[in-house]
Amino acid sequence: MPEVNGPKIYTYLFDNPALPITETMVNYWIVMAFILILCLFLTSKMEKIPKAKQAIAEKIVTMVDGLVDQNMGKNCRQYSPFIATLMFSSVFGTLASLFTLRSVTADLNTTLGWAIIVFGLITYNKIKTNGFGGYLKGFAQPIAVMTPLNLLSELATPLSMSFRHFGNIAGGLVISTLMLSALQSLSSALGLPIPLFQLGIPGVASLYFDLFAACIQAFIFSMLTMAYVGAARE
Questions:
Q1: What is the pLDDT of residue 44?
Q2: Which residues does 233 contact at the CB level (< 8 Å), separation at least 6?
Q3: pLDDT at site 1
Q4: What is the C-alpha separation between 218 and 87, in angstroms, rounded?
Q5: 88, 113, 89, 93: which is closest to 103 by C-alpha?
Q6: What are 74-100's pLDDT values in tens digits?
Q7: Three-state secondary-structure class, residue 102
Q8: How far apart (Å, rounded) are the C-alpha atoms in residues 95 and 100?
Q9: How many domains does the chain have?
Q10: Does the structure show a pLDDT above 80 at 5?
């Protein structure tokens, strides 16, 4: 049964309590290894006339490039690999729960880390487009009295992105755990030799919380990234 009390701490790097090796970190390395193997498999032995696996790889690239073109402009294709990385990391990081691993996106550190990287890209593009002076001046728009609110809005961007993704996945984890516990108690109360009520119902819930929510949250996070970075380039 999954736990809702946060990721486990396996050990500490250099025996330093400030450098824990957590369950999320280990699971994320597993997810990254899986993504690497999947990419190598889909792109190996590429030919002019694509076979099934090459066609899948080309379809993914075309889809990501299309999203980048629509939301950021055709001169932003250099961000396609980053957007694809976010999507794959989010989807497979969440679907790890289907393989008895704790979802890496159920840890705020994961989604906050992504959001901070995105925030760095947003700030970089704003400064690149408007200059450092123009970037600072933008906080006083449309009037100087709005500066504190604009600063709060700027800082709220990574927080809102990370908490939205984390909240949806962690909420699903909590609901699934409570449901399994309640169904197990119900089976025990009825004197059943096996937790019969845990068969079927959790599987249906898992389709939503693990599969559907994983795809939706990955799409939303990537779309917000493209929207914010695209707007910063204008």
A1: 87
A2: 72, 73, 76, 125, 128, 129
A3: 47
A4: 5
A5: 93
A6: 888 999 999 999 999 999 998 888 788
A7: coil
A8: 10
A9: 1
A10: no
Q: Is residue 3 part of a domain?
A: no
Instruction: Please indicate, yes or no, if residue 211 is contained in any of the structural domains.
Output: yes
Q: What is the pTM of this model?
A: 0.84
Mean pLDDT of the 131-151 span: 88
Buried b / exposed e over 79-109, threshold 16 CB at 10 Å, is bbebbbebbbbbbbbbbbbeeebbbbbbbbe
Whether pLDDT at 14 is above 80: yes
Handedness of CA 113, 36, 102, 197 (dihedral sign): positive
Phi, psi angle pair for 11, to nearest 5°: -165, -175
Q: Is residue 2 part of a domain?
A: no
Residue 96: per-residue pLDDT: 87
Classify the C-alpha dihedral 31-33-39-42 as positive or negative.
negative
**Residue 73 sits in which domain range?**
9-232
